[in-house]
Amino acid sequence: MSKHTVYTSNAPAAIGPYSQAIRAGDTVYVSGQLPVNPATGEFAGDDISAQTRQSLENIRAVLAAAGISMSGVVKTTVFLKDMADFAAMNKVYAEYFPDDCPARSAVQVACLPKDARIEIEAVAVF
After folding, report:
1. Under a CB-based contact definition with an 8 Å cutoff, are residues 60 and 100 in contact?
2. Is the pTM of this model over 0.85?
3. Phi, psi of 80 (to 5 degrees)
């Protein structure tokens, strides 16, 4: 099985020793995406809705660089700074996965990089 690094300037660069995504065979593993606007290097906004949207747009951009769309996503993990943001996150999330939703876990964590409110990772298949 071949393994290839996926990179795009349309999503934030990795802030450590990891890749935006790895394609292994017919599977793409997208690293956790913070709500950072790649054009500005800043968070897309302070509220959970704007941050959720940006994290998902970053995932979309990384997947596009790998040659696959959001419809290929089979699993996501959502890391929330505050579980009280779950309903608002879910509303935005549903816009990106209206049908055949991927499997998902959502957990509250003590802290996220750069003090983000959310980080989302994804697994997609061709």
Report:
1. no
2. yes
3. -110, 140
User: What would the DSSP string read from start to end of 46-108?
Assistant: SSHHHHHHHHHHHHHHHHHHHT--GGGEEEEEEEES-GGGHHHHHHHHHHH--SSPPEEEEEE
- Provide the pLDDT confidence category of residue 15 given band limits of 50, 70 and 90: confident
User: How would residue 1 be classed by pLDDT, with cut points 50, 70 and 90?
Assistant: confident
Kindly list the distances between the CA atom of residue 101 and the CA atoms of 4, 93, 121, in Å, as whole numbers in the listed order: 26, 10, 15
Structure tokens belonging to residue 103: 């499997």
Residue 14 CB neighbour total at 10 angstroms:
12
